[in-house]
Amino acid sequence: MSLSPLLVQLQLTDSAFPSGFYTLSHSLEGFAQARAVTPDTLADLLADLLRHGVGPGDATALALAHRAASAADWPRVRAVDERLYASKLNRGMRLAATRTGRQLVDLAAEVFARPGIGEYAALVARRETPGTQAVAAGVVYAATDVPVEQAVIADLFAFCASFAGAALRLRLTDHRRAQVLLRGAAEVIEEVGRAALRRDLADLGGHTFAADVMSGRHERAEARLFAT
Prior knowledge:
- This protein is mainly α.
- 69% of the residues lie in helices and 0% in strands.
- The N and C termini lie far apart (40 Å).
C-alpha cells in the first residue's frame, strides 16, 4: 500500500502549511470579545460549529468537489464552489474562504504539480470560480489520490486544530487543554464527516447564525488579532 496519500494529508493538515488558516479564528474572537464563550464552553462551541456550519457547508462541499474533480467534471466543481460561496452570509467569512482557498491551490499547484490542481487553479485565476478553501482542498486531495472519506476527516481535523490554535492565542485555553479539546472533538468529527459524505449539492449549506453575527461584529471591532 502506498503511503503517499497519507503523507499528503499530514502535509496539508500541518499547521506549518501556509494556507492562511493561522489568520482565522472562525468567529471565536468575536465570541471572546462579546464574552459569550469561556474555557468551559469551548468544546460545546466547537461541536456546534462542526455540526451546523462546517459539516453541512465546507465538509459537504469538499466531498462533492473531490468526487467531481476525480471525474474531471469541472462544471460540477464550479457549481459546488459557487454554492458554498453563496452560503457564506457575511463578507468576512466569504473573504476568509476565498483567500485561504486561493492560497491553498496556488501553493498546491507548485508543491504537488498534478494536472487536476492546475486545471482548478486556472479557473480560479480567471475568476471563473470563487476558489473557496473547502473546494480547493477537495480538488487537491482528489488529484493526490487521497480517498474522499479520509480527505473529509483530514480537513475537519484541520479546522479543529486551527480553532484550538486560535483559542490558545486568545488565552481561552492552554496547550494541554487544547489537546484534550482536539481529542474530545474526534467523535463529533466522525459524525459530521459521515453526514457530509451522504449529502448532495442541494443539501449543501450550514446555518450558524450566532457565529455569523459574531463575525459581523468582529469585522467592525476597533482591535482584532484575527482576520475573522
